[in-house]
Amino acid sequence: MASTPGFVLAGTHSGVGKTTLTLALLQALKNLNLPIQSCKVGPDFIDPRFHEAVTGTPAYNLDACLLGDDTMVNLYGETRLPGHLTLVEGVMGLFDGRGSRHEGSSTAWVARCLELPVVLVIDGGGLSTSAAALVKGYRDYDPAVKLAGVIVNRISGEKHYRLIKEAIERDTGIPCLGWMPREASFHLESRHLGLVPAIEVESLRQQIQAMAQAAAAHIELHRLPGVAQCMDACVSGSPHEPVPQHSPINRFSHAYQHFPTPRHTVGVAYDAAFHFYYQSNLDWLRHQGCRLIPVSPLQDPTLPADLDALYLGGGFPEMFGEALEANASFRESLRRRVAEGLPVYAECGGFQYLCRHLTDLEGRTWEMTGVFPAASRMTSRLQHFGYCRVTTLSDQPYFPPGITTWGHEFHRGVVESLPAAHQPGEETRINGSGTGSISGEITTPVLTMEKPTDTGSTDTGSNATESTAAPGWTCGMTVKNTFGGFPHVFFHTNPAFGMAWIKKM
Known about the structure:
- By secondary structure, this protein is of the alpha/beta class.
- It folds into two domains: about 5-235, Rossmann fold; about 265-500, Rossmann fold (3-Layer(aba) Sandwich), CATH 3.40.50.
- A hairpin with a 2-residue loop joins strand 8 (about 190) and strand 9.
- Helix 1 crosses helix 8 (about 205-220) and helix 6 crosses helix 7.
């Protein structure tokens, strides 16, 4: 279906080196002056920012669970750049997704929906002929997935690779495209939510160039464009589970009205503390007539005066608590603007920033903005991790009641309302003074979330009827025109959700 060539780089399992190899290939192909762009399967925020650091072009998330199959396919089609080769990085193992079903948002399902071939990354450490059995299993598990090549990662050298290559190609017919050495310097550092973000890695460019040089030396880069175009003649489907057919309606661009001339100026918090955004959400806001400008709660002295709204995304505020507390002038300006009615949409880390204070992983407590009379603290484990069906409650003023969409939670933080003794009635005052006070009813909760069961389709048209597992949970707070909550959503999955914020501008 793709008008430009592309392929999916998938792994046998998490930790096999997909992201490292993706960055190496992107940079190596860029060094050859080949126009290249990328996407990421799943809801991950961190990997796409690494992609963008290499390609200089936006990297989009392709998530069948959050978007639905049709919208995901349309998003992929609309965001391809003419003449560019597209590398789609997979998530987890090739067939791993939500639950155990084939269509559970796995990399394999996304490859089938997009009709893209798969290049499989295997860890060759400790293997020789057994690698052929491994590849054969992945080739045969779902015949509708076109396995077009193998790259062998983390092996000792050329001689080792030749043993593995001979066995794989002889016994499976799948071509081996090259290998990468086991090299400690290629390792990307991690923290509690995954990789340390690209924005914090000072030596990233040198590290990626070193990985690209290894890829150029050991991988047949010239074969990748041919692999990417092979699906034109090779699309095949299982007789029991055909490749899905897609609607011609493009719910991505044509969700509500498209305004070519910006009508609103929206600040987007973007710095080392806040940078978790879906690129397609930013595009959708532009389609609704928003001009987006970056703001930094870490560095800017105040909010820009001409903002019509503010988007506070997720990130790592817990890693920058001291600096966020130190920028008191920005926090004060944000509280004043909220009191004046500025429409604010805050998710995950942005939600925590709107609380009175935040206790980090070391047990240190930092003062935040105080927009909500609540305390945020980090815990030792993930909270409500995974996909969830999100429904707006009836007794809250921010969203129309009963809107249902899909969300994803990936955080260790919790937000708890402060005891009544710390809440002066219906009025939240800043630092105990009347200056800049926020007068308005604090509403909580705002949303109810439910875990989906491992049954049924997750396409947008059937989201509302898919069964969910009990019990659910609630989340979110509002005051005046400000909302904060933990789930990340794609606005265009159900545009009525995002339009509730747009209409307040």
